[in-house]
Amino acid sequence: MLSYVARRLVFMLITLFGIILLNFALVQFMPGGPVEQLVSRLSGKHGGGGEMSGNISTRITDPSNTQGLSPEFIAELNTLYGFDKPLPERFWQTVKQFATFDFGDSYYRDANVVELIVERLPTTMSLGLATLFLTYLISIPLGIRKAVRDGSPFDVWSSVAIIIAYAIPSFVLGVFLMVLFAGGNHFDWFPLQGLTSQGFEELSFFAKVQDLLWHLTLPVLSMVLGSFAAITMLTKNSFIEEIGKQYVTTARAKGLAENRILYGHVFRNAMLIVVANFPAALVGAIFTGTILIEIIFGLNGMGLLAFEAAINRDFPLILGLIYIFGLVSLMTKLVGDLLYVAIDPRIDFERRDV
User: Fold this and answer.
1) What's the pTM?
2) DSSP bridge partners of 105
3) Neighbouring C-alpha atoms within 13 Å toward the C-beta of 271
4) Cβ contacts of residue 40 below 8 Å, gap of 6+?
5) Are 19 and 324 contacting, i.e. CB atoms less than 8 angstroms apart?
6) What is the DSSP-derived secondary structure letter of residue 51?
7) Would you state the torsion angle of the CA atoms of residues 271, 276, 281, 282, taken in this order, to the nearest 10 degrees?
8) What whole-number distance in Å separates Cα of residue 197 and Cα of residue 194?
9) CATH topology of domain 117-347
10) Angle 345-349-354 (CA atoms, 0-180°, nearest 5)?
11) Which terminal Cβ of the chain has fewer Cβ within 10 Å, N or C?
12) Using CA atoms, how far apart are residues 50 and 314, in angstroms rounded to an integer?
C-alpha cells in the first residue's frame, strides 16, 4: 500500500506541474491580461470594476501616468508584472511561487491571494460540508430502502420525487425558498442573506452555532434537494446488484436473517462504489456547487470570490483558486482510495496502475 501511495504522490506532483504550466500559459499568452486591462482603463475605454491593489492604484491616480500612455509607461507596466523577463525565467519563478503557495497579490484588491482564499474558505467549507453530510445522511438509507423494496409503490413515488428534485436547478430552488421563507410574500422564518447576524461575536458558543445553522438552512436545503438524487440512485443500483449475487442466495439458504445479510455482507460490498464517488461529491459540494448559491444568498465564500475574480479578470486570484481546486481534487481522490481499503481490506492497490 505504501508503494501505491508513493506512486500516487509522484503522479500528483506531475499533475500539479501541468497545472502550473497551464496557469503560466494563461497569464503570459491570454489576451486581455493585466497590462491590456490597465491600458484600457487609463485610455477611458473600460469602466471596470473591483478594487485595485495599492501599487496599481498609485500609478493610476498619478496624473503623469494618464498623459498619452507613452511606450515608456507601457514598458513600466510590463516591468511591474514581470513581463520584461525571459519566458524561462518567468516560468521558473512561477513554479517556485506555486510550490510554496505564493500566488502574489490580487490585481484588484489590496490583499494577498492566499489571505483572500483563507478568509473566504470557512464559509464555503461550512456550506459544502453541511450539504454533503445531509446528502449522504438522506441518500444512503433511502437508496437501501428503495433497493430492498424495488418495484413497490414506495420505490415508484420516491423515484418520481427524486427526479423532480433533480430536475430543479439549485439556484432556482434557492430563489423559491428565499421568496417563500425569507421575508417575501409568505413567511419570514429565515434571514435573507449573509452567514451571521449582527453582534455575532458577542454571542455564546451555542448561540453562535444556532445562528450559523439558522443562516445556512435555506442555502443548504437548496443544494441538498438537487444533489441527493444521484447518490440515492447509485446506492440503490449498487445494492440491487449485490443482492442478486450468489453469496446472498447462499446466506439466505443457511437461514441468516435479512438484516444480517443486508448489513453484514451486502453493505460492505455495495458501499464501495458509493465511497468511490465521495471525492467527486466532496469537491463538487465545496468548490463547484456553491457559486450561484453564494451569490443568491450573499455568502462571502470562495464561489463568490471566483465569480468576482473572473468578472474583474484578476489573474493571480483566478490561478490561485485553480491551483487550490486541483490540489484538493487530487488529495480527495487519494483519500477515496484509502477509504476503499478501510471498507474492504481485500482490495490490493499494489497491483493497480496509478
Assistant:
1) 0.69
2) 112
3) 19
4) 46
5) no
6) P
7) 100
8) 8
9) MetI-like fold (1.10.3720)
10) 155
11) C
12) 9
First-to-last alpha carbon distance for the chain, in angstroms, is 12
Angle at 124 (CA atoms; ends 51, 294), nearest 5 degrees: 65
- Whole-angstrom Cα distance, residue 281 to residue 141? 17
The Cα 270–Cα 255 span in angstroms is 21
Phi and psi at 195, nearest 5°, equal -105, -25
Alpha helix (H) residue ranges in 182-314: 205-243, 246-253, 258-261, 267-276, 278-283, 291-297, 302-312
Q: Per-residue pLDDT tens for 302-324?
A: 878 887 887 777 778 888 888 88
Q: For residue 318, give the nearest of 307, 331, 330, 329 by alpha carbon.
A: 307
Under 8 Å CB-to-CB from 61, ≥6 apart: which residues? none
Q: Which grid coordinates belong to 328?
A: 484538493
Residues 108-143: pLDDT tens digits? Answer: 777 888 888 888 888 888 888 888 888 888 888 888
What's the pLDDT tens digit per position in 26-42? 766 666 666 666 666 66
Decide: helix, strand or coil at residue 105: strand
H-assigned helices in 313-347? 315-343
230-263 burial: b if 16+ Cβ within 10 Å, else e:
bbbbbbbbbbbebbeeeebeebeeeeeeeeebbe
Q: How far is CA 326 from CA 26, 115, 116, 280, in A?
A: 16, 18, 18, 12
What are the beta bridge partners of residue 182? Answer: 188
Cell reading at 87: 519566458
Q: Are 180 and 254 in contact (CB under 8 A)?
A: no
